[in-house]
């Protein structure tokens, strides 16, 4: 999987070069930063997402993110192994969701390192979404459930993590055509690929 044109800012905001996608016969997507063969179609035209154009983006200082990563990595590795999910994938979700900020809160109310919505946090027994151990444990269990539902299709599991399982179902078991989700999936895949190479 090649995604060299996709970069992440320290805050986890996605900026992309062109991203191409090709689907296998059973609908599994493969992403690339260039057209590898005629089956690849343009998935995302490279640009900075419009919501971040011309606005100052609040980013944690590089050292703050590095400190968050140092603090959260042992928890990420522990819960990833406990729930049989690739640690690099979990770390990539945390990087893109919160920039390794255990106290991050989105405008929609998602909270913590893995940005759990209140209903998801409650489903997995989270009593304090700011507690990194509870948040990561629940987030990894949720991700594992999505991977199981999608028979190991990581791209669809990530789309469901971002947009909700209902959105994936409404779009025929494909990645919903929401700009945020279309940026999110390749951003996490690229971060996971970078983590696997380190």
Structure description:
With 198 residues, the protein is mainly alpha-helical. It folds into two domains: 47 residues, no CATH class; 136 residues, Lysozyme. It is built from seven helices and five strands; from the N terminus they run βββββααααααα. It has a three-stranded antiparallel sheet. Strands 1-2 form a two-stranded antiparallel ribbon. Strand 3 and strand 4 form a beta hairpin. The longest helix is centred in the middle third of the chain and has 21 residues. It comes from Candidatus Accumulibacter proximus. This is Lytic transglycosylase domain-containing protein. Belongs to the transglycosylase Slt family.
TL;DR?
This protein is mainly α and 198 residues long. The protein contains seven helices and five strands; from the N terminus they run βββββααααααα.
Which helices and strands appear, and what pairs or packs with what?
Blueprint: E1 6-8, E2 14-16, E3 19-23, E4 29-32, E5 41-44, H1 62-82, H2 87-98, H3 118-123, H4 132-149, H5 154-163, H6 165-170, H7 179-197
Antiparallel strand pairs: 1-2, 3-4, 3-5
Helix pairs in contact: 1-2, 1-4, 2-7, 4-5, 5-7
InterPro entries: Lysozyme-like_dom_sf (IPR023346), Transglycosylase_SLT_dom_1 (IPR008258)
Pfam families: SLT (PF01464)
Region (Disordered): 45-68
Biggest sheet details: 3 strands, antiparallel
The CATH topology of the largest domain turns out to be Lysozyme
Q: How much helicity do the residues have? A: 40-55%
Low-confidence stretches: 1-16, 47-61
Question: What is the topology, as strand order, of the major beta sheet?
Answer: 4-3-5
- Label the overall shape: globular
Radius of gyration: 16 Å
